[in-house]
Amino acid sequence: MIAIDRFPERLEMAKKFAKAEVINYQEVNRGEALKKITGGCAPDACIDADLVQPSTRD
Fold this sequence. Notes:
Largest sheet: 2 strands, parallel
Number of strands: 2
Shape: globular
Structural class: alpha+beta
Strand order of the largest sheet: 1-2
């Protein structure tokens, strides 16, 4: 599993609880980092798991 984010605390949680390889996209080029981790191949699948809270109306 590979986790890509810009928030260090979320990347740490991914490492700790999911044993994920992590990429901070503000620090490195995502494409190059993915190539390095996967040995030059693209990932088989990607999941966007953004935790944006929905807005509520009164």
